[in-house]
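Suppose you are handed a protein chain with no further information: no name, no annotation, nothing but its sequence. What can you learn? This example shows the usual starting point.
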Amino acid sequence: MPSQDSVYKSLFSQPEVLESLLRYYGPAELSDMLDFRSLEDVGTDLLGVKGQKRQSDLIFKIRFHNRDYLYLILLLEIQGSQYQNALALRMLEYVVLIWQKLLRQDKTTKTLPAVLPILLHTGSHPFSRPTRVSELMGIYPSFLAKFQPQFEFCLETEQIPPRF
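A reasonable first move is to predict its three-dimensional structure. Written in structure tokens, the prediction is:
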């Protein structure tokens, strides 16, 4: 029997399903700007700082309408259990690794693409972990605020009833 992760990966690899997800859950203005016919799976292998292999679940590239060189990478991290507190940091790492991969592939790149990191939570318990990096940080003087990373991932939940 296939795992829940493999079923979701297969399901969300279908352009029509991903389009429905973004139209239903994504920012209202986003779905009308996207050219869903251009949806392309870019693979999930990423290289960490010391060359260690990191892997996300699904990473896609999609073009914005009427913009030749601007594109959006969608990151779906699908897991059905509770996560460590630093999941926001892990999602930020995936975003940075995607950007680094693009810069390695094209050394002439002058701008980075927008990234929409989405966590699809399918657990039997409500998701209660931080979705912003700022929620992981301790107290610091206000003058340091502008130097701190501002990052948040999009959380979509699908509650699964617990088994008896």
